[in-house]
Amino acid sequence: MPGPRWVFIHEKAYQIRDTSIESSVMTKVKGFGKYSDKVMDVADYVTPPQGSSVFVIITKMIMTENQVQGFCPETEVKYACTSDEKCKSFSSGTTGNGYLTGRCVNFSPKFRTCEIQGWCPTEIDTIGAPIMVEAENFTIFIKNSIRFPLFEFEKGNLASNLTSDQIKKCRFNPDTQPYCPIFRLGDVVKMAGQNFTKLADKGGVMGIKIGWVCDLDRSWDDCVPKYTFTRLDSISEKNNVSPGYNFRYAKHYKRENGSEYRTLLKAFGIRIDVLVYGNAGKFNIIPTLINTVAAFTSVGVGTVLCDIILLNFLKGADQYKAKKFEEVTEVSLRSASSNNTEMYKSNQTLSCRIDEKRSTDSGAFSLGH
Questions:
Q1: Is 208:231 a contact under the CB 8 Å cutoff?
Q2: 359 pLDDT band (50/70/90 cuts)?
Q3: DSSP 141-200
Q4: Residues 6+ apart with CB under 8 A from 43
Q5: What mean pLDDT is reported for the chain?
Q6: CB of 79 within 8 A of CB of 96?
Q7: Whose CA is closest to 176, among 165, 192, 187?
Q8: Burial bucket for residue 300 (CB in 10 Å: 0-12, 13-18, 19+)
Q9: Where in this chain does the entry annotate a coiled-coil region (predicted)?
Q10: Known binding residues
Q11: What is the C-alpha separation between 355 and 258, in angstroms, rounded?
Q12: In a 10 Å sphere around its CB, with 0-12 CB exposed, 13-18 middle and 19+ buried, how is residue 288 labelled?
């Protein structure tokens, strides 16, 4: 069981703590990649673009180009049919690529599916697609400001002695550069114990945690952030129903004649969640007194202190002393000694009588009697 010293010193029982940390996070991603013979920049592969604490870096895409509003056959196998009656049995719910018309039409010369009304041609998302390998070297710049309102304490993760040139050149390393605010995406994935190729292919959610645990009795410079990395959706790796992370979005265009068309993109990506937590402590007389008394009480010192006060400093100390202690005099000692002697003699006499009684009865009997 931890002793009073452990509680008071190591656990800082002399401090009052503020756990209601206030935080703001701004992010910026940099890097270029190639995908489908196109050079992609931040505006192409980061969403949303506002630089918030939650964003996605797209690493793989399935594109369905030149979609227009119209009628076309479904691409999902479950909508295979041989007659209109089969298509009418399906309900137009949330599945599929559009509104079912109830007609069975040709998907190919040898295969028929139900017809839909919607964006055509429909998406085929079962085709293989490569990942954007350059994404591993993309960098993430994180600017974090925190505040502990109880102490009116404010600080940011950018070191005060860090110059703009140093920020551009540094890369986070837990051993050599633990306070650099720029993170290589591949390093973030690796430090979370994940494989970048697999994560980029299926998608996933990564957490960059910034911890602020500060002792405000020390220097302002000693309050520094600690970065840790984890995969937040690791349970999805064990689930075959909806593994990874993906979403769809569309880019809309207009032709010269005013007709609308779009490119549908099914995007697989690494979602980054920047999570900030922390607490701060500072010396305060109230918890110091409370925990000091508690520490003394736990080892019995409290009883001793109470006796000292009651026996020496309060009115009625003589009465309390008389109740607590018994005065032993020489007469009392002689009386106690005499009583002990009489008791000893009485016990001795009783023992002799018992022995005499036992000696008259051997416990044997005579055959001639």
A1: no
A2: very low
A3: EEEEEEEETTTTEEEESS-TT--HHHHHH---BTTTBTT--EEEHHHHHHHTT--HHHHH
A4: 49
A5: 84
A6: yes
A7: 187
A8: exposed
A9: none
A10: 28-30, 139, 246-248, 266
A11: 131
A12: middle
Q: Can you tell me which residue has the tokens 């979005």?
A: 249
The answer to whether 207 and 231 are in contact (CB under 8 A) is: yes
**β-pair partners for 34:** 39
For residue 209, give the 3-state DSSP assignment. strand
For the cut 50, the answer to whether the pLDDT of residue 24 exceeds it is yes
User: Could you tell me the end-to-end alpha-carbon distance of the chain, in angstroms, rounded to an integer?
Assistant: 77
**108: confidence class by pLDDT, cuts 50, 70, 90:** very high
Largest CA distance in the chain: 148
pLDDT surpasses 60 at 345:
no
Confidence category of residue 289, pLDDT binned at 50, 70, 90:
confident
Q: Does position 185 have pLDDT exceeding 50, yes or no? A: yes
Binding site for ATP, by residue number, is: 28-30, 139, 246-248, 266
Cβ atoms of 87 and 77 closer than 8 Å: no
Contact between 254 and 59 (Cβ < 8 Å): no
CA distance 290 to 275: 34
- Written as one letter, the residue type at 316 is G
**Could you tell me where the DSSP H helices lie in the chain?**
4-5, 42-45, 84-88, 164-169, 185-191, 196-202, 285-298, 301-312, 317-324, 330-359
Residue 297, both tokens: 């009480």
With bands split at pLDDT 50, 70 and 90, how would you rate the model's confidence at 276? very high
Tell me if 157 sits within 8 A of 209, measured CB to CB. no
